[in-house]
Write a structure and sequence with these properties.
The complex is a heterotrimer of chains A (517), B (640) and C (101). By secondary structure, chain A is mainly alpha-helical. Chain A is built from 24 helices and two strands. Chain A has a domain of 234 residues. In chain A, β1 and β2 form a beta hairpin. Chain B is elongated and about 110 Å long. Chain C is elongated and about 50 Å long. Chain C has one domain: Orthogonal Bundle (Helix Hairpins), CATH 1.10.287. The longest helix of chain C is centred in the C-terminal third of the chain and has 31 residues. Classes of the chains: A mainly alpha (517), B mainly alpha (640), C mainly alpha (101). Chains in contact: A-B, B-C. At the A-B interface, α7, α13, α15, α17 and α18 of A face β1, β2, α5, α6 and α23 of B.
């Protein structure tokens, strides 16, 4: 079973989803929870079976789909993708478990299970076409979730979300086809397998063009400035569960794809485009943080804060060294946990008051102390306080990029200031002061079902902030592999200089020092 | 011995978590007693460690576990107890224990009693992490941790707008400095390859001096935020919105001195870059004077003490900047004792006066509050630096340092500030405890605080008196780590003239303050007197208009810019472009759909037109291909 | 003067042009069918002529196909036309716009 665990992880929720159509409406919730729990259990099992001393792919499976064109169903997992897969399983589980009463809950749960298939599929796919398939398929359930269960502007928001990301992906598809064609030219064989592509050294100009083609697909998904405007609408209109999954998992597809495709395939182009992308990332960080500060709707604050944090992730990715990339992967997980939790928290208050406008609240700290405490912890995690999960990621990302540019890191570091500004002022507006609205005076505190989602997230937030080693070790191992590959593949002098030679560094500096302690 | 280290470090955390268990429930006395007792344990352990370090010169170094390890980066949770950190541990645990016990009485009628102790103990834990860590990252954990707790405690009375505003201000302003600190840490890492103090400092002498200067500057900016140095000082006075025990512990004795601790800890770095050191010293001297001047006229008891804290921090930085790290640390220690005492005394007065803060509305309180009166007077004497109290030894030493190192400007500024310090301290004492009983006008019936609160304060009283006599023992101990520099004015006559001169100057200032503020003429100022309308007074009472400037030109500008970015740029430009492209596509479809009229003959016409167009294209390309050679020649003839 | 290939082609072109104008100008469905027939026959002429010119029978064979298809097309078309005429009592093109987009 362990040999096929990835395929099981991908297709089990979808099959269960199909079966879900025949399940009775009253028992669909427990059915959904059961399926998601089994899936999560499998993901955890995968983690235990995972060998963190191996830097390459594990649990690989391969089935030929279109042999003539080298299209195969290939899946595999390494330190980069492992934890995002687990995170996806985890969020689907607690998301379904904490669902409140809403219409058509059966359809929603089935949709979520399909969404889970596409999410896991994206992160384990090692064939470009299969990857593209899952990448695009993931839009459909999300479109449905926003469009069917969303707010008043849901049709506009969902269509915008779909078309915007879809348009970007098409450019990426062209890039993929060209890449395969180039592979055919070079070797005489067709192949869409990522690991085959890794071995190919492309001329610099090709790299630049292909990098740009892939960039559009990924950047819109991340979303990077100036392609971010679909996100606030999608978050603003989506139901709580949609926002949570979108922020926690779907956004990570873009940043993950940068690490999986752009960096190892086009190392020279990555170096070439490092500064422009870093500038975009910094604009993302500061600009969206300021926009977040201007918001009146708490959900929009969290949505824009997501964009701001994604900027740090991008920056860490393009640090192109082990510290930075490890940090950015860690921050993906951290951001998933924290922003997912923040969207849950917004959902809690929305369920009670049916509004998300901050001026409608005020003084909630005395009415809902437990809610205020959990919100406070998540707020501090979002702001990047040490010993919370976010800090590790932000610290490493910025530390990594500092190697590349001092002044840009200084600018990007303002993330910790501007982040504090919008988060604290939002918290102040909602929780501090006197209770000014009568209807707020008797709001019930978080209930058991909500705690079911929030408590685990809080524990993870602090646990991984104090003891990140469990994640960092496997991530580090795989990232070292990627950086080594990039260093060896790169052809320009500049790239050789910018991308460190991991093996040499490790032998000389780290080893003796660690032993000294 | 490691056991003591861990108990000293973790018992405040346990206390905090214990109190947090009752966070949402109504007041329960045990939530205050247990954390206080656990702090007692921590104090005991610290004392044992002090004895150990003092008697055996052992430096205790433990590594609990790995925190972050990736690439070449390796950061453990490592703790070190050496001569410097053990002094800090003693100061922190001692003052915190006193404040905790005191707060059981002070907060007895507060609804958030349990929450208060949870935050307060969490603060102590963060502070212990800060001083005990053996690496910059660990220091940063504590650094941010104390910032968080300070946020929670300043905004403790969260229903008050001013309190939450001050809390956010403090947090954000500290964050600005923290960014610089973070950059400093990055610099250390990429240049020395490690964040461990010892290894990093060993590697530093071989580095380029420009890099060292940047390191020094960035780390110092970090220190400026926590220690509220100009221009990041405004948060400290506003932080007085928090409960008074908080002001005593966090904003006088411990957290604000973290910056000084950082400079002292990084003394091997600052020794290499004397130019930055001189800058630190100059800034310190400037802040000493600047803050003291604002304390002269302020009419808020707690703010006066806050400014005096700021001013004393300036002294510490002046000493540290001049390379006299042990002197800075000594003043830090002495200051912690008498300033905490002063604040706790002010807390008693506040309770007695029903949270009235204006000393002009008090007067003659010495009759009802004997104990508090004695304590605050002693603390003020110590602060003023009168022989033989603690302040004399530490502050006089700083003056001597400045003199011996030939920085006469710094020396004279500090000397002048010493006079101002004495004046405003005793202005406060005189206004509160002497003169007419003006409070009667406002119908207040003051009462003395609980006995046990006064008893709790007594260790501080004792230390404020005798701390100076530890000078030589302390010197021998800390100079095992810090540079051993003795500052003696070589000529005995100069020495005596200076010491006695300073004493007379300070004593004169005290007498002047007494004379001026115990007189029967003192009335509650109503804004009509000549002095209150003078330019100098207005400048000082408005804190040189710096908070106003920040509010008007930074905070408002940021808010407005944010609004513009959202409504104009994000919605109109960025999103407008996207929607614009979509609209163009939509409109194109809308306009061209008339072609699909459904009329067969029109459609046939379009079909013919399309065929003709395609045919002519084919012909053109065919011809172009056939005559490509000629076309090229023709074009080159045109000079294209 | 011998009648050569060019003459046939010119005839074919002229017929095609007539047919094309008819297709575009005629408003009567029946006339449209006539015009279509002219178009097809113009092509048939050139098929037959070129086939003869090259001595290759493929072209003439093709012309037969075209004739067959034209016949069936007219049969179906006229059938539809009669139905339409019964229903609407006219066969004017301008009235047939149910395909309007």
């Amino acid at each position: 079973m362990l040999d096929h665990i990835l395929s099981i992880l991908v297709f089990f929720p979808a099959l269960a989803g199909i079966l879900g159509f025949v399940v009775n409406k009253n028992s669909i919730r427990s059915y959904g929870v059961a399926v998601a729990t089994i899936e999560f259990g499998l993901a955890i099992w995968l983690w235990f079976a995972f060998d963190s001393n191996v830097s390459g792919m594990q649990f690989m499976e391969q089935i030929a789909l279109v042999p003539a064109f080298g299209i195969n169903y290939i899946v595999g997992v390494d330190g980069v993708s492992l934890f995002i897969v687990i995170l996806a399983a985890f969020f689907t589980m607690i998301g379904i478990a904490s669902l409140g009463e809403m219409k058509d809950i059966k359809n929603l749960i089935i949709t979520l299970l399909f969404l889970q298939m596409t999410m896991v599929g994206v992160f384990v796919a090692l064939d470009a076409i299969v990857f593209y398939l899952f990448w695009e398929l993931s839009l459909v359930p999300m479109l449905y979730i926003i469009g069917a269960w969303g707010g008043p502007l849901r049709i506009y928001a969902s269509v915008k979300f779909f078309l915007y990301t879809f348009a970007g992906s098409l450019v990426m598809l062209v890039g993929m086809l060209f890449m395969a064609y180039f592979y055919y030219q070079a070797t005489g064989e067709w192949s869409f397998a990522l690991l085959d592509w890794y071995r190919l050294i492309l001329p610099e100009s090709f790299q630049n063009w292909l990098f740009v083609a892939f960039f559009f697909g990924f950047a819109i998904k991340v979303p990077m400035f100036p392609f971010h405007t679909w996100l606030p609408y999608a978050h603003g209109q989506a139901p709580t569960i949609g926002s949570v999954i979108l922020a926690a998992i779907l956004l990570k597809m873009g940043t993950y794809a940068f690490i999986r495709f752009s960096l190892p395939l086009f190392p020279d182009a990555s170096v070439y485009f490092m500064y422009p992308i870093a500038v975009l990332a910094i604009i993302m960080i500061i600009y969206t943080a300021m926009v977040a500060y201007a918001q009146k709707d708490i959900k929009q604050v969290v949505a824009y804060s997501s964009v701001s944090h994604m900027g740090v992730i991008i920056l860490g990715t393009f640090a192109l060294n082990v510290e930075g990339i490890t940090g950015s992967i860690f921050l993906m997980i951290a951001h998933g946990v924290v922003s997912g939790a923040l969207f849950f928290l917004v959902g809690v208050i929305y369920d009670r008051r049916h509004t998300k406008i901050m001026s409608e609240f005020g003084g909630l700290a005395s009415v809902m102390p437990r809610y205020a405490t959990i919100f406070g912890i998540m707020l501090m995690a979002s702001v990047g306080l040490p010993l919370t999960i976010n800090f590790i990621g932000e610290f490493l990302s910025l530390l990594g990029f500092y190697k590349q540019s001092h002044i840009l890191t200084l600018l990007a570091g303002t993330a910790i200031i501007v982040g504090a500004i919008y988060m604290l002022s939002a918290y102040k507006k909602m929780f501090f002061g006197e209770v000014t609205h009568e209807e707020n005076r008797n709001l019930p505190d978080v209930n058991k079902k909500e705690l079911l989602a929030l408590i685990p997230l809080t524990i993870i937030t602090i646990w991984l902030g104090v003891y990140p080693k469990v994640l960092l070790e496997p991530i580090n191992k795989s990232v070292e592999g990627i950086v080594t590959l990039m260093h060896e593949k790169s052809i320009t002098q500049e790239a050789k200089l910018r991308i460190p030679n991991v093996n040499k560094d490790m032998g000389l500096i780290t080893k003796p020092e660690r032993e000294a302690h | 011995m490691e056991l003591f280290l861990y108990t000293a470090l973790f018992s405040p955390l346990v206390g905090s978590l214990f109190a947090a268990l009752f966070g949402a429930s109504p007041k329960i006395k045990i939530a205050g007693i247990v954390p206080s007792a656990l702090l007692g344990v921590s104090l005991f352990s610290s004392t044992m460690l002090l004895i150990l370090v003092f008697t055996t010169d052992i430096t205790l170094h433990v590594e609990m576990m790995t925190w972050i390890a990736t690439g070449d980066l390796y950061i453990p949770f490592g703790f070190v107890v050496d001569q410097v950190s053990v002094v800090m541990m003693m100061v922190v645990t001692l003052v915190s224990t006193v404040v905790h016990v005191y707060a059981i009485g002070y907060m007895e009628n507060d609804k958030g009693f349990n929450r208060f102790f949870s935050w307060l103990s969490a603060f102590v834990f963060s502070m212990m992490v800060l001083v005990m860590s053996d690496n910059f990252a660990g220091l940063f954990i504590g650094w941010e941790g104390v910032g968080l707790c300070s946020w929670g405690l300043i905004g403790f009375w969260y229903k008050k707008e001013s309190a939450t505003w001050a809390a956010n201000e403090a947090f954000i302003m500290n964050r600005i400095a923290d960014l610089a600190m973070l950059i400093g840490i990055f610099l250390v890492y990429w240049n020395t390859g490690t964040l461990q103090y010892y290894a990093a400092f060993t590697a530093m002498p071989s580095l380029d001096s420009a890099i060292l200067v940047w390191m020094g500057i960035f780390l110092f900016i970090g220190a400026m935020g926590k220690s509220a140095q100009f221009p990041l000082h405004t948060w400290l006075a506003d932080a007085m919105e928090g409960p008074t025990p908080v002001s005593a512990l966090i904003h006088a004795a411990t957290m604000v001195t973290a910056g000084v601790y950082l400079v002292v800890r990084a003394s091997p770095l600052y020794d290499l870059i004397p130019s930055v050191g001189l800058f630190i010293a100059s800034l310190g001297a400037f802040v000493a004077l600047f803050a003291a001047s604002m304390a002269l006229v302020n009419r808020d008891m707690k703010r006066v003490i806050a400014y005096s804290t700021l001013s004393q921090l300036g002294y510490m930085f002046a000493a540290a900047g001049l390379g006299a790290y042990w002197v800075a640390l000594f003043h830090l220690m002495a200051h912690a004792f008498f300033k905490a005492l002063l604040f706790l005394g002010a807390g008693n007065v506040m309770h007695a006066m029903h949270d009235e803060l204006d000393p002009f509305k008090m007067g003659g309180l010495n009759k009802v509050m004997k104990g508090t009166f004695v304590m605050m007077t002693v603390a003020s004497v110590a602060l003023a630096g009168i022989f033989p109290l603690a302040g004399f030894f530490s502050k006089d030493l700083i003056l001597e340092v400045a003199f011996v190192e030939n920085h006469y400007i710094i020396y004279s500024v500090l000397l002048f500030t010493a006079g101002l310090t004495a004046f405003y301290s005793f202005r406060l004492v005189a206004l509160i405890f002497h003169g007419e009983e003006r409070y009667k006008l406002f119908g207040i019936h003051p009462h003395e605080a609980h006995k046990f609160m006064l008893v709790a304060m007594s260790p501080l009283l004792l230390l404020a008196v005798i701390a100076g006599s530890f000078k030589m023992t302390y010197f021998e101990m800390v100079t095992k780590v810090l540079p051993e520099l003795e500052y003696h004015i070589h000529h005995p006559i100069t020495f005596w003239i200076m010491t006695i001169g300073t004493q007379l100057f300070v004593a004169g200032a005290i007498l002047y303050a007494y004379k001026k503020y115990t007189s029967r003429e003192i009335k509650v100022p109503d804004g009509t007197s000549k002095m209150e309308n003078s330019f100098g007074y207005k400048l000082l009472i408005n804190q040189y208009y710096i908070p106003y400037f920040y509010e008007e030109y930074l905070v408002k500008a940021y808010r407005e810019l944010s609004d513009v970015l959202w409504t104009k740029v994000d919605q109109k430009v960025v999103d407008g472009t996207v929607d614009g492209i979509a609209n163009i596509l939509y409109n194109t479809g809308d306009t061209t759909r008339v072609m699909q009229s459904g009329n067969l003959s029109t459609m046939l016409k379009w079909m013919v037109a399309g065929t003709v167009a395609l045919l002519s294209l084919a012909v053109v390309f065919g011809l172009a291909a056939r005559y490509s050679g000629e076309i090229k020649i023709f074009l080159s003839g045109l000079g294209v | 003067m011998e009648i050569g290939l060019n003459h046939y082609l010119v005839l074919s072109t002229i017929l095609f042009a007539i047919g094309l104008v008819g297709v575009m100008r005629r408003k009567n469905l029946l006339m449209l069918f006539f015009a279509t027939e002219i178009l097809l026959n113009a092509v048939n002429i050139s098929f037959a002529a070129i086939s003869h010119y090259y001595g290759d029978l493929t072209g003439q064979m093709f012309a037969f196909f075209v004739i067959a298809i034209a016949a069936s097309e007219v049969a179906v078309g006229l059938g539809l036309l009669i139905v339409w005429h019964k229903k609407h009592n006219n066969i004017d093109l301008d009235n047939m716009s149910s395909m309007r987009g």
